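Quick log. Single chain, no ligands specified.
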Amino acid sequence: MTHDLRVRVWTERDIVITERGRRDTCLGNALQVKVWAHGHPLLSWREVWEAFVQAYPGKWAIQVFPPKEKLVDGKAVYHLWVLESEPEGLNLKRAEGRGG
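-> predicted structure:
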């Protein structure tokens, strides 16, 4: 069963987040959501992020980029997997004491 959340972001676009259900993944149980706007205009990374943080404050999400043969690209719809906890090893800052 899907559920739509309407989120107004800083751009004043009416962005919709559709909850598509939970599934088990290699990163634990995750809620699959799709982010889109009426008429399916392209959204910037920032617009998708703003909608996500308004709907799921304090949560982490993953967006995947499949190989060409698995790509589904009919409309400007952005698929995210909302995680239960921070994905270990995928934070943007390296742990102190590790090079780089």
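The helical segments are 45-55.
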